[in-house]
């Protein structure tokens, strides 16, 4: 769940899986049923139980599991109003702001999506507007924090309804031929019916859910937590400043690179269902921002030296993560006629056959960052998440949940990506793996 994989895929069916059918089906049911209550448990523990899993456990131990219904906030009208205004604002920016026309990869059914690259403009307008509303006393972001449980609750239910809409739309009015049913309602709802669903000709649903709602809310909530701490204490701790700065640098990097994201697994392979859309609408705002959520009421004084060390290390990791993507994008854009680390790139020329029987050619980069391991860019991404979490220090385990979740997610995606590429490229993938033997961590895995 989230914006995390850097891979073009020839497959368009979201129901494709590298796991056994039983494991895949069990995992789908588990995520459908367990993720929503976990979001509420995470919020409750971070904001009302001092980030202590033990304290939350003791609460249930004394009051019984049925007491979970007492701590689950009811969605309120205010929560839905905040979500609706934010969603409408981001949708308007997506549609109305000018941007360069960008073409996505050709899909398995031969479709090529067209996008308007205005993510950086939307990002800047969003943050400037949010800060201006606070500065001029029009809207106080602390309202968002104070009603965060209600907002997450409203998102949980509202996003389920949205996923049902996507399921019905996929059956009745698909936007392209990259759609279809697996014949199983659970699989169709979980993985999605359409690869590129749109409302009208120009409003791309996955760009909205993944980028303009999900990733944008990450930045908006990071600012919210920072402002809340300032309003409560009259100052912002250095730990919160490091956390907020690193998360904003990461999200800024994402929007700077947004057009590249449209070539990744999230967009070019995974269909628009619960996994991607509910994940971006709910999981990203709640789980990805959780270290900052914890720091609001638990400021840590790091001191200038430690704070600067963590900040520089985090920014370096984010830059390396960006440079990995930039290196491969430049390699693809120039068809291999570029330099990688000052030298001509090492590469493998691979051919593959599409579902329509057409033979196509791809270049696989085997030098630079991509010569270290097949998914080396996941290493700095996981480390960056660690560095914006470590300002919380180690009093509690839960702030590190996102780092652990991200590590599991990326290791699983690396396997899924490798298995798909093996199926797509055949003997050329064997050559590639012989040249770049490590999957993620050079010398280890």
Automatic annotation (TrEMBL):
One of its GO terms (molecular function) is 7-dehydrocholesterol reductase activity. The chain crosses the membrane at residues 22-44, 77-97, 117-136, 148-168, 207-227, 239-257, 272-290, 302-322, 382-411. Pfam families: ERG4_ERG24 (PF01222). GO terms for cellular component: endoplasmic reticulum membrane. It is a multi-pass membrane protein. The keyword Amino-acid biosynthesis does not apply. The keyword Membrane applies. Its EC number is 1.3.1.21. It comes from the Eukaryota. InterPro entries: ERG24_DHCR-like, Sterol_reductase_CS. It is found in: Endoplasmic reticulum membrane. Keywords: Cholesterol biosynthesis, Cholesterol metabolism, Endoplasmic reticulum, Lipid biosynthesis, Lipid metabolism, Membrane, NADP, Oxidoreductase, Steroid biosynthesis, Steroid metabolism, Sterol biosynthesis, Sterol metabolism, Transmembrane, Transmembrane helix. GO terms for biological process: brassinosteroid biosynthetic process; cholesterol biosynthetic process. Belongs to the ERG4/ERG24 family. PANTHER family: 7-DEHYDROCHOLESTEROL REDUCTASE, DELTA(14)-STEROL REDUCTASE. This is 7-dehydrocholesterol reductase. It comes from Abrus precatorius.
């Amino acid at each position: 769940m989230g914006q995390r994989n850097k891979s073009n895929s020839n497959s368009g069916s979201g129901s494709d899986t590298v796991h056994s059918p039983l494991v895949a089906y069990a995992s789908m049911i588990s995520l459908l049923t367990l993720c929503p209550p976990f979001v509420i448990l995470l919020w409750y523990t971070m904001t009302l139980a001092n980030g202590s899993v033990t304290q939350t456990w003791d609460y249930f131990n004394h009051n019984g599991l049925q007491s979970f219904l007492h701590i689950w906030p009811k969605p309120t009208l205010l929560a839905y109003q905040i979500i609706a205004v934010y969603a409408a604002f981001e949708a308007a920016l997506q549609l109305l702001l000018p941007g360069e026309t960008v073409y996505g990869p050709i899909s398995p059914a031969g479709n090529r999506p067209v996008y308007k690259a205005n993510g950086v403009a939307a990002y800047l307008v969003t943050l400037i507007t949010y800060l201006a509303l606070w500065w001029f006393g029009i809207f106080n972001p602390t309202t968002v924090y104070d009603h965060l449980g209600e907002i997450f609750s409203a998102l949980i239910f509202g996003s389920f309804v949205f996923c049902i809409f996507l399921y019905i739309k996929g059956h009745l009015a698909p936007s392209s031929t990259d759609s279809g049913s697996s014949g199983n309602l659970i699989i169709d709802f979980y993985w999605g019916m359409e690869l590129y669903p749109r409302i009208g000709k120009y409003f791309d649903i996955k760009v909205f859910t993944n980028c303009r709602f999900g990733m944008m809310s990450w930045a908006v909530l990071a600012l919210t937590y920072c402002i809340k701490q300032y309003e409560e204490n009259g100052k912002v701790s250095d730990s919160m400043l490091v956390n907020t700065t690193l998360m904003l640098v990461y999200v800024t990097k994402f929007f700077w690179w947004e057009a590249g994201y449209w070539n990744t697994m999230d967009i070019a392979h995974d269909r628009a269902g619960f996994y991607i859309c509910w994940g971006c609408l709910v999981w990203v705002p709640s789980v990805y921002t959780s270290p900052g959520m914890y720091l609001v009421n638990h400021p840590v004084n790091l001191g200038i030296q430690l704070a600067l060390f963590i900040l520089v290390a985090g920014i370096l990791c984010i830059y390396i993560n960006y440079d990995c993507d930039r290196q491969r994008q430049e390699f693809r854009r120039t068809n291999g006629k570029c330099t990688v680390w000052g030298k001509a790139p090492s590469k493998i020329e691979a051919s593959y056959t599409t579902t329509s029987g057409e033979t196509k050619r791809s270049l696989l980069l085997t030098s630079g960052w991509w010569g270290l391991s097949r998914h080396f860019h996941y290493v700095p991404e996981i480390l960056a998440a660690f560095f914006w979490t470590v300002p919380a220090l180690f009093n509690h385990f839960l702030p590190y949940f996102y780092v652990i979740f991200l590590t599991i997610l990326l290791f699983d995606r690396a396997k899924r990506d490798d298995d798909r590429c093996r199926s797509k490229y055949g003997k050329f993938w064997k050559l590639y793996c012989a040249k770049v033997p490590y999957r993620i961590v050079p010398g280890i895995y």
